[in-house]
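Q: what sequence does this backbone want?
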């Protein structure tokens, strides 16, 4: 059972978490003051004439909103050994982005401050929430599996270390955390995904596994392999004390039925998080809701701009409105300054600030004025699968301009294909109309847009595509939507 000391710790932390949540504006204003002080001491700030205290409006006027390309020269110079460019401390660790939407990898600086005050502090929040939701849980009596990426020495010059964020965190975990984790680091940060899954499955079979953390897709690969090796019917026959899956990186809803099959019963619980190389941004706020609580005190200063307006319309957190779609801009303790991370959110409540992730700024389809975003697609796929008893493995969609098929073209990989493809398409089309009125309007009379055209993919289609790009495992994921046909055309030969 959980010791009284651990119980007391999480009770206190839960109280602290919500006290901070109700003081979001002050948290953010304090962070802005902290960052401006840092900005005065680095080349990046000096290049923009920063030499003293700034109000938010002055900060906003002084620094441009940037993407990776604008910061890339500073990052590359830092990786070559120069320091004090983006942060007033040495930076030697860099998180390699998953980069599925781009052929060129991005390298996000990871400072000591970010490790300690953002990522490690943030990693405690899902456990805090879980313990508050289920105070009698005993996950600390066993071990946790973290399904992360790889870590290796940067091959450029030996002055920088590069790996997936999850691997960097594992390398720096305190000894007590390593003691509560399985398998050991030699397996957990292996480069080869296929070999890693095999060794992870075999190394953990006889452990008392009580929790799992990772992306839903890659965790499912591991769980299926564990069942294959063990010959068991479901995971609780292997790990009877498994109670918690901490997930993030993508919507869990399309995979919920898969997990109910793999881990049946009410004993298993799920906690959603929102973390990335750029920061730990959110954790599930309440037991029976999927809204996320924004972390306003974990080393990230937030700005937002309406997705239909652009970065010239940035506002601070305390000016956001419920129900508006925003792109996120962050300034963080790793040296990213007014950086567009590429995600979009919608607030469902303010004070405290609760939100839901709605997609990626580059992952949408708007070829016919339909403005289809990831949240629309995830909801429609989930509802369609519920009605037909289907379990989706992966999917992607893109516009189609072929005469007679104008509309959207999709590739779906299911555990078992639908009995009737036409029935699936009909229900999927109807659910898209429900969640997106613009899509519904463009579908009237089959004039502007025809019903979706769907390819049924063979098993492992998306896995083979990711493998061909060297992007198996870890934080890598299939792009759900593209306002172009590049990804779809790449995947089609694999189906």
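A:
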């Amino acid at each position: 059972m959980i010791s009284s000391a651990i119980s007391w710790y999480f009770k206190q932390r839960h109280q602290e978490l919500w006290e901070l949540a109700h003081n979001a504006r002050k948290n953010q204003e304090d962070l802005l003051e902290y960052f401006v002080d840092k900005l005065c001491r680095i080349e990046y700030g000096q290049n923009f004439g920063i030499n003293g205290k700034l109000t938010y409006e002055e900060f906003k006027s002084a620094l441009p909103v940037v993407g990776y390309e604008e910061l890339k020269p500073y990052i590359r110079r830092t990786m070559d050994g120069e320091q004090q460019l983006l942060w007033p401390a040495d930076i030697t660790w860099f998180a390699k982005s998953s980069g599925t939407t781009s052929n060129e990898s991005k390298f996000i600086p990871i400072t000591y401050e970010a490790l300690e005050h953002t990522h490690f502090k943030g990693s405690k929040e899902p456990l805090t929430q879980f313990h508050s939701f289920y105070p009698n849980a005993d996950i600390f009596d066993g071990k946790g599996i973290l399904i992360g990426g790889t870590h290796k020495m940067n091959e450029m010059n030996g002055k920088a270390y590069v790996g997936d964020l999850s691997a960097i965190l594992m390398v720096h975990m305190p000894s007590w955390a390593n003691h509560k984790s399985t398998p050991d680091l030699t397996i957990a940060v292996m480069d080869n995904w296929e070999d890693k899954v095999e060794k992870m499955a075999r190394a953990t079979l006889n452990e008392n596994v009580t929790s799992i953390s990772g992306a839903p897709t890659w965790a499912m690969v591991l769980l299926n392999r564990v069942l294959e090796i063990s010959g068991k019917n479901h995971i609780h026959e292997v790990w009877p004390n498994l109670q918690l899956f901490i997930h993030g990186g993508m919507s869990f809803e399309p995979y919920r039925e898969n997990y109910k099959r793999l881990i049946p019963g009410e004993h298993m619980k799920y906690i959603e998080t929102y973390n990335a190389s750029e920061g730990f941004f959110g954790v599930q706020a309440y037991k029976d809701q999927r809204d996320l609580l924004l972390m306003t005190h974990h080393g990230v200063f937030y700005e937002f701009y309406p997705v239909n307006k652009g970065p010239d319309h940035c506002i601070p957190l305390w000016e956001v409105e419920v129900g508006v779609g925003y792109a996120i801009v962050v300034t963080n303790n790793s040296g990213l300054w007014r950086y567009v991370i590429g995600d979009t959110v919608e607030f469902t409540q303010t004070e405290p600030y609760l939100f839901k992730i709605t997609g990626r700024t580059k992952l949408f389809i708007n070829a016919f004025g339909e403005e289809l975003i990831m949240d629309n697609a995830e909801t429609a796929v989930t509802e369609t699968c519920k009605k037909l008893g289907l379990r989706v493995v992966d999917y992607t969609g893109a516009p189609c301009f072929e005469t007679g098929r104008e509309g959207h073209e999709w590739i779906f990989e299911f555990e078992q294909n639908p009995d009737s493809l036409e029935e699936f398409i009909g229900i999927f089309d109807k659910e898209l109309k429900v969640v997106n009125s613009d899509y519904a309007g463009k579908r009237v009379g089959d004039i502007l847009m025809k019903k979706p055209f769907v390819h049924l993919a063979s098993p492992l289609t998306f896995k083979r595509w990711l493998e061909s790009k060297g992007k198996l495992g870890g934080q890598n994921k299939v792009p759900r939507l593209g306002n172009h046909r590049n990804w779809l055309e790449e995947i089609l030969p694999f189906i």
